Amino acid sequence: MPQRLTVVPQLRVIIRLRMSCKNLVAAAYRELRDRGSQAQNASLTLLDHPDPPVRGWAGAHALEFSPEDGGRALTDLVAAGGLAGFNAEMTLKTRRKGNLHVP
């Protein structure tokens, strides 16, 4: 059996997991938004998290209520490079175009 046939189901699982994580993070940030500025400001501590993807998610969502802090975190990720840096760059470009909509 060709290898690519066994890889496709694995990719589907990875995509589903990634979408589940994205939905979970979006739900958490909606909850923070609903709880008000004190809850949102508490999430700013995630901008200094050691895990770059966590900083990226936090930075993207912080753009809504603390654009300076969110922008700084994303710019730092861009400078560091890697996949998180690429994602941060795309987030900033999307925002500059006016197309960034945080769920």
Question: If you had to describe this structure to a student in words, what would you say it looks like?
Answer:
The protein has helices at 3-35, 37-42, 52-62, 67-80, 82-96. It is globular, with a radius of gyration of 16 Å. It has a single domain, classed as Serine Threonine Protein Phosphatase 5, Tetratricopeptide repeat, CATH 1.25.40. The protein is built from 5 helices and no strands. The protein is an all-alpha fold and 103 residues long. Helices cover 77% and strands 0% of the residues.
Cα gyration radius (Å)? 16 Å
Number of domains: 1
The helix-and-strand class reads mainly alpha
Encode the helix/strand succession as letters.
Answer: HHHHH
Instruction: Extract low-pLDDT stretches.
Output: none
Question: For the record, what CATH class applies?
Answer: Mainly Alpha
Instruction: Kindly state the number of beta strands.
Output: 0
Instruction: Report the span from N to C terminus.
Output: 42 Å
Helical content stands at: over 70%
Tell me, briefly, the overall form. Answer: globular
CATH topology: Serine Threonine Protein Phosphatase 5, Tetratricopeptide repeat
What fraction of residues sit in β-strands? under 5%
Helical element count? Answer: 5
In the CATH hierarchy, the architecture is Alpha Horseshoe
Write down the overall mean pLDDT.
86
What does the main sheet amount to?
A: none
Blueprint (SSEs and pairs):
Blueprint lengths: L2 H33 L1 H6 L9 H11 L4 H14 L1 H15 L7
Helix pairs in contact: 3-4, 3-5, 4-5
Question: Which keywords apply here?
Answer:
5 helices, Serine Threonine Protein Phosphatase 5, Tetratricopeptide repeat, globular, 103 residues, mainly alpha
